[in-house]
TrEMBL record:
GO cellular component, one term: cilium
InterPro entries given in the database record: ARM-like, ARM-type_fold, TOG
Domain TOG: 66-295
Parts forming coiled coils: none
Compositionally biased intervals (Low complexity): 33-43
The protein's name: TOG domain-containing protein
UniProt organism field: Macrostomum lignano
Amino acid sequence: MRNLKDVLENLRLKGVGDQPPSTFSAGTKSRRGNSAGSADSASLAGSYASTSATGQSAPLGRQRGAAGSNSRLSDAAADLVKTACQRLNAPDWKERLSGIDQLAELSQERTDLVGQCIVKFMDAFAPRLGDSNSKVQQHALETALQLVHPLRNYLPTVANTLVQHAAPVLSSKSAELASLAGQLLDIFILEVDSEKLAQPFVQAVATGNPRSKPELVDKLAALAERLAPRKPRLSQLHLEPELFRLLGGLASAPGAGSVALKSSAYRLAQTLASYSGPAELLDRARSNAQCTPQAVSMLEDALRQY
């Protein structure tokens, strides 16, 4: 299994790979324009036409509040949000592609609007990460990789929704889709507040497909490296109990199929111990009512290898 630290560092230094800095090529805009019709295109053009001397789009109304703000949207902005969400949820897969493109364009040119309505947008967009149409799903995953950075200040509000829909794709039979999902989760770890990711990632590990669980545990270890130094109490509250549960499950059902998961669980244990101290981690394991003696024994074995 690849070293996740190297993967994260590579993403941080080089970005997400060969994808262009913007998904909004002439072909993309043409596809959205053909699907949406001339009236919608004219509406969007009018919304973005007014720019300042710095080249920034003039705001649609005065929506500059934080995510979830109750500030009233202008009629034009409200229509834009409604149209994008309707396209994202449309029965026609081509319309869903159009909705993804529109969200991507808005996230670049009207970041404040998307941020203000982040819950509405992500409730419509997140299911596309697992869309039944492979073209829509791949386009959604590729677009999501580009949206994380511009929307990073708003994503903590919807972290649970996004991780819930991205994590299952790791077990996809399509290597390309699984790879995109893995990159997306890695970028979440790099860009989004680790405090807001702890519970979603723990839940993803707890409910993960056996085929993808080792990779999910590795990602939980990567998250621990960012969370434990800053918020050790949250690490103890959320990550350590999941470690104890994993070790308990491995102790009660050993077998060849659990080798990769055992290696990942050991890495998680060693990561947590590096911040809390091995003795302290063992003490908490022994005092945890749900941590069996067999799990404690496995933890001791993991820390001996540290």
